[in-house]
Design brief:
Elements (H helix, E strand, L loop, with lengths): L2 H18 L3 H11 L4 H22 L5 H24 L6 H17 L5 H9 L1 H15 L3 H11 L3 H26 L13 H16 L2 H27 L1
Length: about 240
């Protein structure tokens, strides 16, 4: 893939992630997989950018999530590492794209369903630890836990600022651990030259925060839902084309 188009994809997704708190991994992972990148190369490219944006968001957002952080670390991170190691070692046996597509579609349906049953939300709140284990498992195996993390964050926080910080914290610690795991246990060479892409979020993050502050909650959710819906259908169509 030409460096120019790789840069354009990274730039667009970095803008989206800087504004909404999700998008870089949620949309970037299937995008790069379906244009020919393998799973480890996709992670090696996207994770440093994701970690940079997430760090900036954690520092920028003043809301406190300290009481939630230790719970996340204890119940989510171990399963993240276990299933990342599993997919690294089974990379030549399984078609990661299928699982990535399935995770995106399922999470999109759950998020987009405004009439989502109260039972689901009640289950998540009642079994928070199990929900965090599930998020770690999905994210470790597919890098697509962001949708579920977003849904979980809206239930355990009090406002969208706290929710965005919780999501950013999750991406920060998961991304850091994923990248370290890749460096130590990965089966492919990690191209450290791609680290220059971290300049992109450093340039775009702060100017775009003014836009976030001007977007009301309903518009915020409408934009997220519309983009997730469109991308979900695109991934579904590509998955069917690959299968048949």
């Amino acid at each position: 893939m030409e460096v120019f188009w790789e840069f354009i994809i990274v730039l667009i997704l970095s803008l989206f992630q800087s504004l909404f708190g999700i998008g870089l991994l949620l949309f970037g992972t299937p995008t790069f997989l379906f244009i020919g990148y393998d799973f480890e190369s996709t992670l090696a490219l996207l994770l440093p950018i994701s970690v940079t944006i997430s760090f900036l968001q954690v520092v920028y957002e003043k809301s406190s999530i300290r009481s939630l952080a230790s719970e996340f670390n204890i119940f989510c991170l171990p399963y993240l590492v276990i299933f990342l190691l599993l997919v690294i070692n089974l990379g030549n046996v399984i078609d990661t794209r299928t699982y990535v597509a399935a995770a995106l579609i399922i999470s999109s349906i759950l998020i987009l369903n405004k009439n989502r049953t109260i039972a689901i939300d009640t289950f998540i709140l009642k079994y928070r630890k199990l929900s965090l284990i599930f998020i770690g498992t999905v994210h470790g195996f597919t890098n697509m836990g962001g949708g579920f993390l977003s849904m979980f964050s809206t239930l355990v926080t009090v406002d969208r600022g706290s929710a965005r910080k919780y999501i950013a914290f999750g991406y920060l610690v998961m991304g850091t651990l994923q990248y370290i795991t890749l460096l130590i246990c990965g089966t492919r060479h990690v191209d450290l030259a791609n680290l220059y892409y971290v300049i992109v979020p450093l340039v775009v993050f702060f100017p775009i925060q003014n836009l976030f502050n001007k977007i009301d909650d309903s518009l915020f959710m409408t934009i997220i839902n519309c983009i997730a819906l469109i991308f979900g259908f695109l991934v579904l169509g590509t998955s069917f084309k690959t299968i048949f």
